[in-house]
Task: structure prediction
Amino acid sequence: MKITAKTKICMVIGDPIEHSLSPQIHNAGYEALTIDDQFVYVASRVDVKDIQNFVKGIRAMNIRGVSCTMPHKKAVMEYLDEVEDIAKKIGAVNTIVNENGKLIGYNTDWLGVLIPLEGITKLENKTVALIGAGGAARAVAYAVTCRGAKLTIYNRTFEKAKELAKEFGGVAYPIDEIENVNHTDIIINTTSVGLHDSNETILPKKYISKHQIIFDAVYGTETQLLKDAKEKGAKTINGLEMLLNQAFAQFKLFTEYDAPADIMRKILK
Result:
């Protein structure tokens, strides 16, 4: 790294944040483009109760860009100067760009979903089963419905599934009716099941078929869901692809350079 007093700071915030791989990804990109004298990327654990003060800190320190992870994606929105339309529709901001003191909120999570899926199939008229109804699920719901897919949502809290289905157009089911996913083309898990225990799965193997695409937003070690899908002959997408593709879009917003995708992917893997 070639950090000087002119180097612009970019960062990721969350709580917790220690597990984040974003600093490795972004800094590898800066080095690959030899702009590591212009940008540096760090991480900071921020309590959600301090988010207003943190936003003041962005202005005070002239921080160039911020990646927001949970639990800040919604909380940060009210303190920004402007939020792009897509982020408003999703109801979450995962990217803040400081344009000469004006803080603008974006969402690139939906691209992290859309780009890997469209690399495999066309989404128009495909049936998509979405498991979960949290922040990541909102990005998924936007991504697939904006391309004409038919959405079903499964969640432990049925009311949340119904709210999401009403907002993005779809049908909600309680999680104990998960067997209905065997009729869908694509299954996407946005719950944290498999994050802390890679042997745990949200979906019994018997409901997976070789004709499906299984996308698990959990990243790190290969989850049991993806192992089961591979054994059934289904196509799979690891959560690392979501992480990478949303990061590529953030990289461009922060630096105005196209992300060196191959280098960033190599570093991550």
Notes: The first helix runs from residue 22 to 32. The first strand starts at residue 8 and ends at 14. The chain has two domains: 8-107+242-268, 111-237. The mean pLDDT is 95.
